[in-house]
Amino acid sequence: MRDLKLIWDFRGPDALKIAEHHEIHLKEYIQNHKLDLNITGYQAENDMHAIAYLVVPENEMKPIRDALKPHRGQVYTPEP
Question: Structure pTM?
C-alpha cells in the first residue's frame, strides 16, 4: 500500500508563515476526525513558495482529499 503526500502551495512573502499555520489546521482535522495519521509538515521551497502537507494511505485518500482540497499530491517517499 502506497502513502500519498497531499500538498497545499502558498506563494508570496508570507508563504512560510501561512504554510506553518495551515499545518495547525491539518492537525486539528486529524484530531477532530479521529484519524490515525501522524505525518504532517511544512517547508519552504524558496523565498516566495512554501508548502504544507499531509501524508495519507492511498486507500484513505479520497474522502480526505475531497474534504480538504489539496492543490496537488504525489507518492510519499520517507526521507532517510
Answer: 0.94
